[in-house]
Amino acid sequence: MAQEKTVSKEITPQSEDFSRWYLDVIKKADLMDYAPVRGCIVFKPDGYALWEGIQQELDRRFKETGHRNAYFPLFIPESFFQKEKEHVEGFNPELPFVTEAGGEQLEEKLAIRPTSETMFGHMYAKWIQSYRDLPMLINQWANVVRWEKRTLPFLRTSEFLWQEGHTAHEDEVDARKETMQMLEIYREFSENVLAIPVITGQKTPSEKFAGAVDTFSIEAMMQDGRAVQAGTSHYLGTNFAKAFEIQFTDRENQLQFCHTTSWGVSTRLIGALIMVHGDDRGLVLPPKLAPTQAVIIPIGPAKLRETVNAKAEELYNELRKAGVRVKLDDREGITPGWKFNEYEMRGVPVRIEIGPRDIENGQAIVVSRITGAKVSVPLDDFVDQVQSMIANVHTEMFNKALAFQQEQTYDVDSLDQMKSLFEQKRGFVYAGWCGSADCEKQVKEETGATSRNIPFEPKVKKNKCLVCGEHGEQTVVFARAY
Amino acid sequence: MAQEKTVSKEITPQSEDFSRWYLDVIKKADLMDYAPVRGCIVFKPDGYALWEGIQQELDRRFKETGHRNAYFPLFIPESFFQKEKEHVEGFNPELPFVTEAGGEQLEEKLAIRPTSETMFGHMYAKWIQSYRDLPMLINQWANVVRWEKRTLPFLRTSEFLWQEGHTAHEDEVDARKETMQMLEIYREFSENVLAIPVITGQKTPSEKFAGAVDTFSIEAMMQDGRAVQAGTSHYLGTNFAKAFEIQFTDRENQLQFCHTTSWGVSTRLIGALIMVHGDDRGLVLPPKLAPTQAVIIPIGPAKLRETVNAKAEELYNELRKAGVRVKLDDREGITPGWKFNEYEMRGVPVRIEIGPRDIENGQAIVVSRITGAKVSVPLDDFVDQVQSMIANVHTEMFNKALAFQQEQTYDVDSLDQMKSLFEQKRGFVYAGWCGSADCEKQVKEETGATSRNIPFEPKVKKNKCLVCGEHGEQTVVFARAY
């Protein structure tokens, strides 16, 4: 069987080598390939379909909250980056520059956008005159480039796809409300669509976005205990407004600077999705995102195939009509066992097996990808029960990921405790922190863990800095991170 | 009224200055703004929404015909362009190059993609081994850059958005079938969604895509009689397959080169849409693409507002439930007359006026944007009649554009005839052509018109070359073009 050969490569078990497992899974599930440009990948159709699902779900949420899409240029004049001091320091080392075009040297080098605060800032300054123009709520789906030294498919690539929202407001209250609203949309989306539990909180000053006043994030735990920053929302204060002169006449006819925000998620969510849910058999896709939610596989002897296939097609049509993204695999010459493995590897949430005996008994066997549970479903209540099993897969995935996250969450009182913890374990570590960047840096140097965020709802409260032992104003979550 | 002030700028009549009219309309309808990078624009929300509509309609058609989306890198190594001789000659003059990144000079310059045949070629060579891997049918939605000397918003910009389909096939027959299928999808989409009649045909060798064997196009006529190439589909033969070694083992176990195709449409469709349908009052949007298909405006004295607004909201909800993209503008302090102008300028296909007397009479007034016809619609058959009026707007727009195209279509027997024709008129000119590039060039030099395509179904048949008088094998459509 030609098809059987193409997927014969085994997946390294997670317990043996998590990184190897990850690369095996994305290769075997045909999600990406390496591009002939350093640090870039090709998003193959099965990988890109996950991004299309993410886009659809988020785009609806953005529009429901009054945002509209637009498209801003890829090229940003070098001088724009000079206008916001922290911003240029943060991004300059990662910028690629176009220096020649159309056979001529350019007078001013053009950066490829790593993010578009500066370009939005420049345009918003033109578009905003009065408080009546506010709030301005625009999102963009685009490619961005950051010249990364170390890359990892989906999680860190030189070019990646993302959305970046940029909004301008009359005052701090309104801008902070927006910042929090978008963070909450990310949290809700992450939990309800991706089935990924996250820790919401505020970044420490040394981990915040270059140019922001405050950065907030959602942090997810991978199955190797490392963290992925899955989305960020920034309150930018008047930093970019001052740099780009985004000013408006307020209700008292006074000239004011806008308060702006920005917020984004990227194709790294695809990587997070795989690392949170996947197992040794391959991908496990959350039903709301899965391009195929259920696959029907006819079984039994060849001579009875006709009756079985007819029934399978009937079920296929019923599910389809009910809005289930279902696939029927009635290919001949490929064993059911091979098909089972194939769709498990591809992460299809629910598998439906139907054979001659099932038809006699008026039932089909439905198997959950996440628990492996096999359920006999009566055909006279088939659609409802399959739909509820698909919904259950989401809940089971979320609960499993949450239980894992909770199991792998620790708290420590000192750096020594943290060091010995990391000798055996990986995960989120709660600790007190005095607020000093030096203490934070020391944690990183000695444990490899960075502060993920200062959670809004910490599991424990600490009151002494783990490094210096001084008064720890904040409880921080530390973790090694992608 | 603040809002009234922002749109006070008048639109230059088409008859006075078509170019001015175009720029006035896109500015007044708030579709775009100029970016601070040469030849680039910002697609503002109202302009980008048109692209979102185009994407949605085309993407469905691509998927229904078995294509899947993927995403390939923005950067293409310079050496890739050298591999296909015609391709490099065609695109080299327009390429921007990244020469430094992350603070270092790159060893090999990276082009920003102007189109991705080379990158797809490189990857397809890796992915395709056997006839079982074929056809490979992938599309990409992406930004591309061509460093243009003369730019015009939407129609010709240095960076633009587009889709590019790239497919690989076992043989010429299959690849040509794909080429024609995609051209037909573009034609059907153009006519049934954009309400733009087009001439389908084959490009002459000197106008074909750099690297193609044959290029086919759909050509639309703007209201100044100039042409816009609205979509192209290329049969690439084995040119790129040989350059990138896209080979497969065929059914007889022989190594063969793939036959490939590519096809694309871009954001220039937005420009075409405006120039085909717009009038002196502003945009006219085809209903299937219009973000707002109908707007309800309550009228009548302020003291009766409450009853009228309640009824207007009822109608709004009914239309919405029926799937109509409807907007209710019940803002106070803005006159109905101003609102009428505003939504006409924005091209909303149908306007619904409702006042106290209408309610008494159990009716509402529905006005078509394209014909200006006012119809009294009984409220007891409201939704059906409004829906059918919206559908009519599409038909009326298409018919009007088709009538214009036919009126402005001429045929000539000689270059002299063509020259005197262009002294008074603009449009599509049918003429015989011997097939020589020199004759074609002479037409261009003396009339400014280029060959648009060799129509599959020419309105007239000519048999003598308009330039040299020799046997004219082909009947070509010439026009001045954007």
Show the helix and strand layout.
The structure is a homodimer of 482-residue chains.
Chain A: H1 2-6, H2 18-28, E1 32-34, E2 41-43, H3 45-64, E3 68-69, E4 75-77, H4 78-82, H5 85-91, E5 96-101, E6 104-112, H6 117-127, E7 136-145, E8 159-169, H7 172-192, E9 199-202, E10 214-221, E11 227-237, H8 239-244, E12 247-249, E13 255-257, E14 259-266, H9 268-277, E15 294-298, H10 305-321, E16 326-328, H11 336-345, E17 350-354, H12 356-360, E18 363-368, E19 374-378, H13 382-407, E20 409-411, H14 415-424, E21 428-433, H15 437-447, E22 450-455, E23 474-479
Parallel strand pairs in A: 3-7, 15-16, 15-17, 20-21
Antiparallel strand pairs in A: 1-2, 4-6, 5-6, 7-8, 8-14, 9-10, 9-22, 10-11, 11-14, 12-13, 17-18, 18-19, 21-23, 22-23
Helix pairs in contact in A: 3-7
Please report the number of helical segments of chain A. Answer: 15
Gyration radius of chain A, in Å: 25 Å
Lateral strand order in the biggest sheet of chain A: 3-7-8-14-11-10-9-22-23-21-20
Structural class by helix and strand composition of chain A: alpha+beta
- Choose one word for the global shape of chain A: globular
- Specify the helix fraction band of chain A: 25-40%
Describe what this molecule looks like in 3D.
Two copies of one chain form a homodimer. Chain A has helices at residues 2-6, 18-28, 45-64, 78-82, 85-91, 117-127, 172-192, 239-244, 268-277, 305-321, 336-345, 356-360, 382-407, 415-424, 437-447, and strands at 32-34, 41-43, 68-69, 75-77, 96-101, 104-112, 136-145, 159-169, 199-202, 214-221, 227-237, 247-249, 255-257, 259-266, 294-298, 326-328, 350-354, 363-368, 374-378, 409-411, 428-433, 450-455, 474-479. The model of chain A is unreliable at 1-8 (pLDDT under 50). The two termini of chain A are 39 Å apart. In chain A, helix 10 (305-321) links the parallel strand 15 (294-298) and strand 16 (326-328). Helix content of chain A is 36%, strand content 27%. Chain A has 15 helices and 23 strands. With 482 residues, the first copy, chain A, is α+β, with helices and mostly antiparallel strands. Chain A has three domains: 2-277, 2-Layer Sandwich (BirA Bifunctional Protein, domain 2); 294-390, Anticodon-binding domain (Rossmann fold), CATH 3.40.50; 409-479, Translation Initiation Factor IF3, CATH 3.30.110.30. In chain A, the strands form five sheets. In chain A, strands 3-7-8-14-11-10-9-22-23-21-20 form an eleven-stranded mixed beta sheet, sandwiched between helices. In chain A, strands 16-15-17-18-19 form a five-stranded mixed beta sheet, with helices on both faces. At the A-B interface, strand 2, helix 3, strand 3, strand 4 and strand 5 of A face strand 2, helix 3, strand 3, strand 4 and strand 5 of B. Strand 5 (96-101) of chain A pairs antiparallel with strand 5 of chain B, so a sheet runs across the interface.
